Predict the structure.
Amino acid sequence: AGISTVRFVTNSVLGIFGLFDVATDFQLPQHDTDFGETLFVWGVGEGAYLELPVLGPSTTRRTTGIVVDLFTNPLSYMVDSPEQYYGTVAAAASGLSRRGRFTDTVDSILYESADSYAQARLIWLQNRRFELGDTGAASEIDPFALDTEGF
């Protein structure tokens, strides 16, 4: 929290109200987190793997985090419509950009594997667990397990 606060103040003061990212020049690392990560730190179980329309792959814990992040976004309370949706539109555009960059990999998973759903699920869960730093024995994934884990 301290580093994020220093980044915010640095970019607000020296970066002309955040127009420029000068905190990176000062070697202040950026932390991209979500409420799903907070729930992980608090010990909330992962839950089932989900494929959400438009949002893509998720888990029950991450989906709860997405909903909380949506309602705790200060832009939705401080900025008039339609400007409050700029962040959402930017995130969607970023997702489409990532899909374009990894088209070959995604296509190989979808069309060249025996079970594309299980393969995509396995890859996504391993990546999410890596991002969260989940290195315990619980991070092992059984590709043959049912999706009802945690219920």
About this structure: The mean pLDDT is 79. Residues 43 and 102 are 32 Å apart (CA to CA). Residues 116-132 form the longest helix (17 residues).
